[in-house]
Input
Amino acid sequence: MKNAMRFGLVVLTSLALTTSVIHAAPTVLATVDGVKITSDDLDDRVKSFPPQYAEALKEKENRLRLLEQLINEKILVAAAKKAGLNKSVSFQRQADAAQSQLLIAEIMRTQVDAKVKVSDDEVKAYFQNNPQQFQETEERRASHVLVKTEDEAKQVAEQVKNGADFGNVADQKSIDPSAKTNHGDLGFFGKGQMVPEFEQAVFSMSKGQVSAPIKTQFGYHVIKLNDIQVRPKVDFTPTVAAQIKESLMAQKRRTVTSEYLNKLQSNSKVINYLQKM
Output
């Protein structure tokens, strides 16, 4: 009787495992010249989209569109291989580069990201130990034109005084590389974020005022104060905690990455020929 029961349990267990395997097998959704596209392939494509699209991509119509993309990709890949493009030097170089990036991402995931953790206690401690970052703060928004000499700065100040548009002058005269895209606008910033001479000038100006030339280590600045705002005190909310955690994670990741690279470099023979030229 006991042997019969034991045999029955073995059979049932085997059937259960077999059924599990059958259910786990991916479903073939399409074939292209005999090459299968499975439900796993489609799921992987869905996962490549940002999380906010997850619900929409559960709809059959959208999944059909994605499947059509996969089908077309298989057709294009087959055509490229038939033309021998996968054997070209250019393709091999790009394929090697892509493989390298994938391997780097994988080793970073396993050797770095897996070791980077930030606890809730660490987040709360950071908030408590850095009150200056979360207290009520005055911020100022300024634009500047950066030039090499004081005479150039005086000319800029005179142009603006005579009605020239500050942003246009920054476009034309500023040696700050970002001026070409932001017209000299530095956005809002608080104390401690700019070099002392620049900060002192900005926080002593009135809204709309244009400064005389200000000398810093970078050259001579003509500054316009665009706006003043007070950032309210920041409370320890879940959103703030999440932001702190993200920042601490990034810091830890940089530290762990640096330590890991130093360890690898110490065990590698590196010859930098360009450095020797």
In short: The radius of gyration is 31 Å.
